[in-house]
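agent> Task received from the user: take the single chain below, predict its 3D structure, and emit structure tokens. No templates, no multimer pairing.
agent> Plan: (1) validate residues, (2) run structure prediction, (3) serialize to tokens, (4) report one or two observations.
agent> Step 1 OK, no nonstandard residues flagged.
tool_call: predict_structure(input=
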Amino acid sequence: MKWHELTWPEFERVDKTVAVLPVGVVEAHGPHLPLGTDTLMAIYIAEKATEQTGALLMPPLWYGYTYVLDKFPGTISISQETLYRLFREIFTEVARNGVRYLVVVNGHGGNVDALRAAARDAAKASDLTIVVVNWWIDLAKEARRRVLETPEGHAAEDETSEVLAAYPHLVKEVPRDADEWVEMRYAVYGKEVSRVVYTKAVQGYPSKASRAKGEAILREAVEELAMLINDLKRGRLPIEKRG
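)
tool_result: status=success, residues=243
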């Protein structure tokens, strides 16, 4: 069920145990993937999982924070402070509307700090339980180990394969020289870094991508997200007690 397609009387009656919010960013993803890749993939996974479970699907949040990639045309980056306030207020409104569990399907690394801070603060001030799923890290780990030949990255083998599987019509032919891998020994920040890192908006080896690899990853990711949603519907948190 899509939150934004319901009337208010329908929303009043609908099961609000679990809602799912896809979030991402608009930023450069090499010369071959769409600017909205991170959000599109979060939407795809969230849509498939909510279709299977009957959970509420919230309208996606397309904008996020990016650092190095804002030098490329088409990238839109909002500040961490704005992003934190936006997340916190959305979470607060979700709680006010009677949702018990909110699953945030995040598709972008630059959102992580603001998401975590906003989730902590909103949850502390309400009865809402928020689960942040950084899907490219948390889901389909076994499938990634099984099918990927090169390290995961940005617009790399993993992301290119995933978009090929979900939105093949949006993928352009991968240029022969698209592969690029840069390593830093430490966390380094500065304008000089942005001139060296991501010269093509790529970190990895998109030349190794295939639709079949993406299908394997997405199949497992959707299955795991659906399992999480069903567990939450039964009141089971993704927490394991040991010892």
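agent> Step 4: summary for the user.
The longest strand covers residues 18-23.
agent> Done.
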